[in-house]
Amino acid sequence: MEKVSTGSEKNEAHGESRSYIAFDQPELVNLSAALSHEFLSTNHSGGYMSTTSALCNTRKYHGLMVLPLENFGGDRHVLLSTLDETIAVDGKEFHLGVRRFPGVYEPRGHKYLVSFRLAPTPTFVYRVGDVLIRKELLFVHTKEHLLVRYTLLEGRGPLRLTIRPFLAFRNSHALARANMNAEVHFTPVPNGTSGCLYPGFPTLYMQTNVVSEYVHAPDWHYNVEYPEEYKRGYDCHEDLFVPGYFTCALREGRPLVFSAATQVCNPRQLLRDFNGELARRPPRDTFANTLQAASEQFLADRRRSMYIVAGYPWFGRWGRDTLIALPGLTLPLGRVDCFEKVLTSLVKEMRGGLLPNMGRSDAPAFNSVDAPLWFFRAVEEYCDYMGDCARAWKLWGKALREIFERLSGDGLLPFSIGMRPNGLIWAGEPGVALTWMDAVVNGCPVTPRTGFDVEINALWFNAIRFMQRMYSALGKPGEAERMALLADRVQASFTATFWLPQKGYLADYVDERGANPFVRPNQLLAVSLPASPLTAEQQAGVFEAVRRELYTPLGLRTLSPKNPSYHPHYEGGQVARDEAYHQGTIWPWWLWEYLCAARRVKGEHEGGVVARQILETMAREMHCYGLGTIGEVFDGDPPHAHGGAYAQAWSVAAVMRIAESVHPELFAGSQMGGEV
C-alpha cells in the first residue's frame, strides 16, 4: 500500500521523536482549530486523560485524571480537571493555561504554543520571549498515575514555575458546584500535598520530584464553561476547586516532574518513573502503528475480568459493541489472550440466553436481541483465526448451546424474543428498542423495528451454519444434520419474508403490517457474513442499493437521503440528536461489513480499490476530532461533520480490520513497521 501523507508528520525537533499526529504554531494559536482537536490517553483499567490540543477543556468529560471507581459502581469520575502553569520571566508572569468562562477565554496561554505532538506522549512546546519550555503529559498505563514533565529547552534559568491543580471529584456525567461539604484541609506529603474532597473517593497525592514550595490557599473557581456541552444541550458550567499552588525552580538540564496519583510516591523516583514509562511507549509515527495504539486504548483489565470500553469519553461497557469490536481490536494484533479474556468475562454475565447490553458492572441491562447473535459471529472468527474449533468449544461451547436452545426453543425470551414456526427470529415489544438502532425519545423508539429484523435473521442464519460446521468438526454428525435442516428452513423463510422483487433488495424489517422497504445498512449482513441466505444475484442487488444510497468512505448512512425521514445533520440537543442518530447519520463500524460484501460481489480487485479509499480517508480523519483515533458518527450530508464520541471502539476495529486485510505484515505479532 502506498504511504498516506497528510502533511502533519514532523521532523525531529528539540530532541523529540517523530509523531504521526503533530501541529505547528499556526494551527495552535488559532483557538477555534485547536479546540476542535481532542486527544486521549488511557490506562489498562479504563481510566483516561483527555483534553484538546490547546489544553483547554471543552467537555465535562475532559480531565487529566479520570478514573473508574468501584465505590460508585465502576463509573468514571473526574478527579484532576486541569493544571494551570505560570512562569516568571524578567519579573513578568505569563500564564500558560487556557480556560473558558461565559463569553471569554481567560487565561489565553495557547498564544505561547509553538508545537504539539501526540506521540510518544502528548507534548507541548511554549515560547515566551527567549524562553522555550516543553510540557509532556504521561498517563501511566499500569497505575492510576499522571506524570507531567517540564523541561527548560532554551532561556536563562532558573525560572520560577507555579502550578495550580484544578480538582473536580465528581462523576464524569455530572458537574461540580461550590459547596460547604468539600474537605478543604489537605495533608502534607514528601514534596507535596494530599487530599480527598468527598467520602468514597480515593485520596489524591500531588508531588514534585524536586523540593518545591506548596502554599495551601483553598479557593473555588466559578462558572468554568464547556462549550461542547452547550452545543449538546446540556448544563455546561461548573465550579472547580483549587487547594493551593506549587512553586518550583525550573533549570536547564534538570527536568521538573509533577505527579498526581492515588498512592503516595517517592519523589526521587518520579523522573525515573517518567523515563521508564516513556521508553515503553511504542512508536506512533505511521498510520499503522497509530491505529494499533488506538485499538489498544479500549481494552480495560479490571481485577479478574477484562472488558471493552465502547467509546470515549462517555460510553462504558456495551455487550453489542464488545462483540462487534472484539475481533478487530485483538486478532489482527495476535492478542488471542485478550480476546479470550474479554469474551469469557462477558459470558459470565449471561442470563437466560441473553448477554448484557449495557450498564454498570453491578446492574447490567439485557435489552438486546443482537448481542447473543454477534456472540456466535465472534466465536466463529476466533475459530477461523485459530484454525481449530476445539478450544473455542471448550471455552464457550456451553454458552453457544444455551443461547441456541433458548432462541430456538418453544418458550420466548424477555421482550418476546424467540424463533417462530418459520424458523426466523421475532423480537420486540411496544416502547422497546432491541437492535443496534436503539434511540428512544419520550418512551418511543425513533426507529421502531418490532418484528422480523433483517440483520437479526442474517446473523441467525449465519449462526446456524456456524453451529453446523462446529458440530461437524467436533465429530457430532447428528447435531450437524439438525443444524443443516434448520438452516434450510431459515434460508427459505428469509428469502420469502425479506426479499422485495420490485425493489431488488431486502426489507429492513417485517411485522404484522408487512414489509418496511426503507434502504438501511442492516440488510448488508445478508451479504457480508460468511453464510448468506441469498443467491448471487440477490446479493448483488443488496450491495448495489447500499453502495448507491448509503456508502461514503467514512461509513454507511443509516437511511437513504431519498427517504422523507432522512436527517442530514447530527446536531443540537439530546432529542434532536436521537432523532437523527439512525436516520441518516453515518457510522464507520459498517465499513468492514461493506468491504466484505464488496469483495464477495465485486471481487478482490474492486474490494482492494474500496479498501484503499477507506484507509486514505481514515488516515486524514485521524488528524481531526479525536486525534489518532476514529470517532462514532458523521453527518449524512457533506462535509460530513464529526459527531458523537471522538473515540469509538467498533469504528477503530473496522478500520483496523480493513488495514490488516490489505497489509497484514504491518500488524503481524503486534510488530509495527513500515508506513501505510
The span between the termini is 6 Å
Secondary structure class reads alpha+beta
The CATH class of the domain at 22-279, by name, is: Mainly Beta
Major beta-sheet overview: 9 strands, antiparallel
The counted number of beta strands is 39
Number of DSSP helices? 17
Please state the overall shape, judged from the principal axes of the Cα atoms: elongated
Mean pLDDT: 93
Strand content range: 25-35%
CATH architecture of the domain at 22-279: Distorted Sandwich
In helices, the fraction of residues equals 25-40%
Low-confidence stretches: 1-12, 670-676
Under CATH, the topology of the domain at 22-279 can be stated as: Beta-galactosidase, Chain A, domain 5
What's the short version?
With 676 residues, the protein is of the alpha+beta class.
What does the model show?
Residues 1-12 and 670-676 have low confidence and may be disordered. The strands form twelve sheets. The protein has a nine-stranded antiparallel beta sheet with strand order 1-9-10-11-12-19-16-15-14. Strands 2, 3, 4, 5, 6, 13, 17 and 18 form an eight-stranded antiparallel beta sheet that branches. A three-stranded antiparallel beta sheet has the order 29-32-33. It contains 17 helices and 39 strands. Strand 30 (499-500) and strand 31 (505-506) form a beta hairpin. It has 676 residues and is an alpha+beta fold. 30% of the residues lie in helices and 27% in strands. Helix 6 (319-330) packs parallel to helix 17 and helix 15 runs parallel beside helix 17 (649-662). The chain is elongated, with a radius of gyration of 26 Å. Among the domains are: 22-279, Distorted Sandwich (Beta-galactosidase, Chain A, domain 5), CATH 2.70.98; 349-535, Glycosyltransferase (Alpha/alpha barrel), CATH 1.50.10.
